[in-house]
Design goal:
4 strands; Alpha-Beta Plaits; 2 domains; alpha+beta
Length: 293
């Protein structure tokens, strides 16, 4: 009687350990996927902040200004073109605090220039295109100068590429290690029932008849592990959203929902797949080798 209780306790403990293991692995993989999504969205935000400033000459005519704006707007890699007058710049509070309220009286004029703030699509534009654009703008009538941060697009694209590579490599290594560990964990849980499997074989049970209860148990184990992983993921996202509100703006709520659904599906697939492999191994094993495994 005591032996039966111990056996049942061991089976329950083995089932619980394998379920928790699956849940934690799925949670980690889902978290890496979410971080990859955040990194991609962050990279797009950075790419869309690549900007250059076109300073207009003081003698620029309205027609020249309109011509410059039309040519800028026609470029497919330019996201937006915003005009900023020297009067509006002079009224800026931060500028006045830095240079004083009466800087125009001291200098006798407004020393600032009218400008166009040009926002580039960093995901599309190439460094050569920026160089060509700057050269073209500087030759235009009405343009005083063009200011562009040196190497901004190359630096952004290089940084983004490195971040993506690191996350993909990390995710791939984590996936490989996790699958190996899960395979061993589930195989160990099936190992404790190898004699039951062998007994069923000896009395003439078919492979499907032997595997069916194991697969049914694996199905519910996968669902449970997936739900636990999804709940833990939702809790972490909620806590992160409270601690860092800006973090929640980097991905759409639908992304988190898709990842949570994938966790449940992944839990079922992983549990069924490795259970099938483990049970199939013992079903096909010769009777005289069962005790040697």
């Amino acid at each position: 009687m005591k032996d039966n209780r111990k056996l049942k306790r061991r089976v329950r403990n083995s089932y619980a350990i394998s379920t928790v293991s699956i849940a934690l692995v799925i949670f980690l993989l889902g978290s890496v996927g979410y971080l990859l999504s955040v990194a991609v969205n962050s990279s797009r935000a950075l790419q869309n902040r690549a900007m250059l400033t076109v300073e207009l000459a003081r003698t620029a005519e309205p027609e020249q200004r309109e011509s410059i704006e039309r040519q800028l707007s026609a470029k497919e890699y330019i996201t937006s073109v915003e005009f900023s007058s020297k009067e509006s710049k002079a009224e800026d509070e931060a500028f006045r605090e830095m240079f004083g309220e009466d800087f125009e009286k001291v200098l006798g004029e407004n020393p600032l220039l009218d400008t166009y703030e040009v926002l580039l699509d960093g995901a599309v534009v190439e460094a050569e295109q920026i160089d060509e654009l700057v050269s073209e703008l500087r030759k235009m009538k009405g343009v005083s100068d063009v200011i562009v941060p040196l190497g901004v697009v190359e630096k952004i694209n290089s940084t983004i590429s490195r971040i993506r590579t690191v996350l993909w490599v990390f995710g791939g290594v984590l996936l490989l290690i996790s699958l190996i560990l899960l395979n061993n964990t589930i195989r160990i849980s099936i190992y404790s029932k190898r004699y039951i499997i062998n007994t069923q074989k000896l009395v003439g049970a078919t492979k499907w008849f032997i595997m069916r209860p194991f697969l049914g148990s694996a199905l519910w184990q996968g669902v449970l592990a997936g739900v636990v992983a999804a709940a833990l993921f939702a809790l972490v996202c909620w806590r992160l959203g409270e601690a860092m509100p800006e973090f929640g703006t980097l991905t759409a709520p639908s992304t988190a929902a898709v990842i949570m659904a994938a966790m449940v599906v992944g839990g079922v697939v992983i549990s069924l797949l490795f259970t099938t492999f483990a049970v199939n191994k013992f079903v096909n094993m010769k009777t005289n080798k069962i005790h040697l495994y």
